[in-house]
Amino acid sequence: xxxxxxxxxxxxxxxxxxxxxxxxxxxLTAALRIVDDExxxxxxxxxxxxxxxxxPMSIYHHLPNKAAVxxxxxxxxxAELDLADPGDDVPWQDQLKSAALAYRxxxxxxxxxxxxxxxxxxxxxxxxxxxxxxxxxxxxxxxxPPRQIFESxxxxxxxxxxxxxxxxxVRAETFELAPDLLERVxxxxxxxxxxxxxxxxxxxxEGLHYDFDSGFESGITxxxxxxxxx
Length: 230
What we know:
The chain is an all-alpha fold. Among the domains are: 19-64, Arc Repressor Mutant, subunit A (Orthogonal Bundle), CATH 1.10.10.60; 78-173 and 212-228, Tetracycline Repressor, domain 2 (Orthogonal Bundle), CATH 1.10.357.10. The protein has eleven helices and two strands, in the order H-H-H-H-H-H-H-H-E-H-H-E-H. The protein has helices at 24-38, 45-52, 56-59, 66-78, 92-108, 111-119, 128-141, 146-170, 178-186, 194-207, 212-228, and strands at residues 174-176, 209-211. The chain has a two-stranded antiparallel sheet. The longest helix has 25 residues, at 146-170. It is flat and about 70 Å long.
């Protein structure tokens, strides 16, 4: 005779408090909060379950492992890059710059996740089409053939990734290069790197104050001008 007051063997019984409202979106939102606040290493399945107030095993019904969680986080962040087509009225150069700024903005908003994404590009495989479509669209409007579109997009994405690695490492709006650089230049033997010496001394401490926003704009402008030459 079955005891109706207890769950039968092999069944988990009634969900614990909090599990009835568990969803993939809720799990990813909580995981992203942990990563943003405390870093990648803090995001464990046990910690995630504790934050949600559920049994760790209940998470696996929605996301099979930690790798799936990180892939879901990349999807959550990069899905916002599905930029609407501005049409032919907007110059392709402006479309390309907007796509680059949006891509950088998505990574910059979550610097701890950015390091994970840049070290494991397979994590964004499911959203890569959404991510790069605006770049392809802009360069197609520029009249480039398929091979040049493909290579140009890869070059731009590589630039953004490399730039972000430096920006995330510094974790500041600006970067003070001047004191060390000026000192190093002043110690160079006479006639050694004369052009570098002249430029650095002409700029002075204020001119060598590096701002990440203007640096990124400058880099993208150089790339766009190079593509124009194609």
